[in-house]
Every structure is written in structure tokens, then in C-alpha cells.
């Protein structure tokens, strides 16, 4: 995202615009799967000239989460919390039990089921969680 547009996003959320926050935001935008703070930190320090430490990444993610820009995922990578962009869309994930890689699944298989359930029970359905575990092609080799 252009830094001009980013400034608008930050301003709307009441976030002060800094180079480090821009870097973390843009990084999360590119990723489709939830990622850990450690991963962001490692990748950013590889490419960015900007010096950043891990606690800064955590603080930025925490801020973004509080402002609703980023979602803290229920999924974990090596026992660490993961984060993803809040695209405001409902998503599920496929998780490899061996390497913990996470693949987002397009669409929701439960939306029709929810509708039927709501009709038969007269519940107003609010949300559901679904996580599919498996072994990725790489780990099957
Ligand atoms: Zn795997
Ligand atoms: Zn769903």
C-alpha cells in the first residue's frame, strides 16, 4: 500500500504514522496466512534497513489488534500467537500438524448449514470456528 493511503488508514484508527508501523502493516497485507511476530521480525530485519527489535513488532501488533486492523488468530505457530490482517471476511484455515504451516481456505462450507440450523432452531447464529488439521504435501514426502 502506498504510504499516502496508509496514512489515511492510520489516521482513521487514531494510529500515529511511523516507518516501523508502515513496514509491519505492509508486510501483513502481503501475507495471506496468519503469521507470528517472530516471523515478521525475522523477515523485516532481513529486508528493511530500518532497525527494529522484536518487542517493537509485538507492540505494533498489539496496537493494530486493539484498533481492529489486525486479528490475533486462534492458531499458533510453534506455540506462538499468530496475526493476520482483518479483511472483515470470514475465513477458515488448513493446518499441517507436522510443520504448522497454515493455508487459508476460500469460502465457508458451513454457511448453508448455519442457515438451516437457524431456521430449525430459531437461533440467531453469531459465529463458528472450524480448523482443519492435516499433513501438507511437503511433510508427506
Ligand atoms: Zn507440513
Ligand atoms: Zn465458516
Description:
The chain is built from six helices and six strands, in the order H-H-E-H-H-E-E-E-E-H-E-H. It has two domains: 1-87, Arc Repressor Mutant, subunit A (Orthogonal Bundle); 89-141, Ferric-uptake regulator, C-terminal dimerisarion domain (Dna Ligase, domain 1, 2-Layer Sandwich), CATH 3.30.1490. It has helices spanning 3-13, 19-30, 37-47, 54-66, 111-121, 137-140, and strands at 35-36, 70-77, 80-85, 92-96, 102-105, 131-134. A hairpin with a 5-residue loop joins strand 4 (92-96) and strand 5 (102-105). It is of the alpha+beta class and 141 residues long. One zinc ion binds at residues 96, 98-99, 101, 136, 138-139. One zinc ion (ZN) is lined by residues 90, 92, 108, 110, 128, 130.
Topology as a string of helices (H) and strands (E): HHEHHEEEEHEH
Instruction: Output the strand order for the largest sheet.
Output: 1-3-2
Give the overall average pLDDT.
86
Low-confidence runs: none
Amino acid at each position: 500500500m502506498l504510504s499516502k493511503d496508509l496514512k489515511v488508514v492510520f489516521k482513521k484508527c487514531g494510529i500515529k504514522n511511523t516507518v516501523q508501523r508502515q513496514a509491519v502493516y505492509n508486510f501483513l497485507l502481503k501475507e495471506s496466512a496468519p503469521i507470528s511476530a517472530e516471523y515478521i521480525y525475522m523477515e523485516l530485519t532481513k529486508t528493511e534497513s530500518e532497525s527494529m527489535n522484536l518487542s517493537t513488532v509485538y507492540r505494533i501488533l498489539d496496537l493494530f489488534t486493539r484498533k481492529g486492523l489486525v486479528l490475533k488468530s486462534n492458531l499458533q505457530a510453534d506455540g506462538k500467537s499468530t496475526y493476520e490482517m482483518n479483511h472483515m471476511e470470514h475465513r477458515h484455515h488448513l493446518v499441517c500438524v507436522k510443520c504448522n504451516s497454515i493455508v487459508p481456505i476460500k469460502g465457508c462450507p458451513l454457511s448453508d448449514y448455519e442457515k438451516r440450523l437457524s431456521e430449525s432452531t430459531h437461533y440467531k447464529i453469531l459465529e463458528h470456528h472450524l480448523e482443519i488439521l492435516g499433513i501438507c504435501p511437503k511433510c508427506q514426502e
